[in-house]
Amino acid sequence: MKKEQFIREFLPTDITLKLYRDIPVSDFQVKIDLIKSSAETVRKTFDPRVYEVRLHNEIGHCYFMADKYPLAIMHFQKALEILEPQHNPFIYFNIVGLLIRSNRVIADFPESCRWIEVAFKNIHFADSSFHKLNILKDYVDVLKDRNQPFNNDYCKVIEEIIDDLGFPNGLYDPIDKVNSMKQTNHIWNRKLMEISLMDRTNVNSLIKAHEDYLQNCPIGWYKNYLKEEIVGIKNNIE
């Protein structure tokens, strides 16, 4: 399998924009027809197995966004019949998370739990602690729906995330920890996106926004990222 093709463009930018900006979510069949026709033009340039994974992933997302969960599950599972976590951890754990969520929404908790076990079995392949946090969030949502306790075997994953991403560690209960990390990450990720959309020519305002973020953000990973950004901005004006 040509793993490098998992990070290659699959759909042209204009097609992607049309899919997610111009075509309503409810017109999922229109989206899927567009995906299939566009993908067909590059089929011969892709490893056949990579092509199938990426096609089923795109179609699965369309069904998922349209709340057609059984159809989304079918396509996501087809993708994972081919894709292994070591092939591309980002796509793999994203699909597994969507399978956990989809089965949870339709109240197929045995299937949700099966995919949770698959995720934690392969969690060592995750190349980002944000992937691990996403899986933990999905796991905790299932626990809430089923009124079940946290499996202490997974506490080590929480600690790995805290150590790697620099989250504050002031809570004892693992579910409270995960929910706190989820909320905190959502807030500061959104604020980071707002900074990234600022006018890059207004350097003083840009630097002040970065410095305010650094002063208040409790997550080490984001702070380190912003520190490098500030250095780059200041170097460009010297």
Descriptive account of the structure:
The protein has 238 residues and is an all-alpha fold. The chain has 3 domains: 1-83, Serine Threonine Protein Phosphatase 5, Tetratricopeptide repeat (Alpha Horseshoe); 84-194; 198-238, no CATH class. It has helices spanning 13-22, 28-40, 48-65, 69-80, 89-105, 109-121, 129-146, 155-165, 174-196, 203-216, 220-237. The longest helix has 23 residues, at 174-196. It is globular. The model has no long low-confidence stretch (mean pLDDT 94).
Question: Keyphrases for this structure?
Answer:
238 residues; mainly alpha; Serine Threonine Protein Phosphatase 5, Tetratricopeptide repeat; 70% helix; globular
Instruction: Report mean pLDDT, rounded to a whole number.
Output: 94
- Low-pLDDT regions: none
Structural Rg: 20 Å
Assembly annotation: single chain
State the helical fraction.
Answer: over 70%
For the termini, the CA-CA separation is: 47 Å
Number of strands: 0
**Shape type:** globular
The arrangement of helices and strands along the chain is HHHHHHHHHHH
Overall tally of structural domains:
3
Based on secondary structure, the structural category is: mainly alpha
Strand content: under 5%
What's the number of helices?
11
Biggest sheet layout? none
